[in-house]
Amino acid sequence: MQNDKDLPEKADEYGRTVSPYFNIEDKQEKYRADKLFKRLRRKVGHAIGDYGMIEEGDKILVCMSGGKDSYFLLDMLLSLKRSAPINFSLIPVHIDSGFPNSPEHLLEDHLKKVGLDYIMAKRPVYEICKEKVPQGTPYCSMCSRLRRGYLYSLAREIGANKLALGHHRDDSLATFFLNLFYSGMMKAMPPVLRTDSDDLTVIRPLIYCREKDIYEISKLKQYPVLPKGLCGWGEDQQRANMIKMIRSWDKEFPKRADIAFKALKNVAPSHLLDRELFDFSKITNGPKVK
Q1: Predicted confidence (pLDDT) per residue in 93-149, tens digit
Q2: How many Å apart are CA 99 and CA 47, to the nearest integer?
Q3: How many CA atoms lie within 13 A of 84 on its CB side?
Q4: Residues 182 and 238: beta-carbon distance below 8 Å
Q5: Can you give the pTM of this predicted structure?
Q6: What are the domain boundaries of the chain?
Q7: Rounded Cα–Cα distance for residues 243 and 7 (Å)
Q8: What does the alpha-carbon distance between residue 64 and residue 45 come to, in Å, rounded to a whole number?
Q9: CB 47: neighbour CB atoms within 10 A?
Q10: Where are the beta strands (DSSP E) in the chain?
Q11: For the structural domain made of 9-254, what CATH number should be given?
């Protein structure tokens, strides 16, 4: 790949060797790891192209939670930046939520190694959750909203016009089934989302990637993943159950998750019941049913 003159030398070097190929000695393992990395890189590139996620001059805040998905997201975007035909910038940002005993230094040490300018922003997420959420109630919903709000504010402060989140295909499917089973809505995670204030765009470049593949890359790269459950509640249980269901399909019905995701891209409004989406009252004179 070409060197990116807009990148700091350290970040350009990291991006050049970002594939786990460079961490492995065994020839067969090197080949297998690089093949997986390149397959996922193509998927990310296709997702970005299909939904117009990145444009010339974009300043992208890369949301770093400290989980495997955010590390992989940063690696992918940095790798693609080095060969992209357009110019855009990346700013990794982490919200330090103040949870007790959280080893935030692991993430910061990694970002120093990557070589991009980054932001570690301390915000009182944990304190607000303790104060506002009734005792015995999980913090998940408020914690998520607070962190997202702080990320939006930081994006505006630094002049970023887009935020990149590390949600993958399994996350989108889990959201779809959560809405289907608990809210009576057919709604998933969109690949591109405009904020209500119409000044920021949220993008999800990993939307075509399976979690199991990202997990394998994470092990090969040995990302310093921050522990979950520091708040004492662990993961959102309803979402965790949806993810568990999708993982069980991989063992019993290996293609089911892929087919379900394909359905999100292949919608027939005339064969559903939403009158706002399709005007059934005028079916005699059109529009035609497809």
Answers
A1: 999 998 888 899 999 999 999 999 999 999 999 899 888 888 878 888 888 899 999
A2: 34
A3: 26
A4: yes
A5: 0.92
A6: 9-254
A7: 37
A8: 20
A9: 20
A10: 59-63, 89-96, 119-122, 162-164, 192-194, 201-203
A11: 3.40.50.620
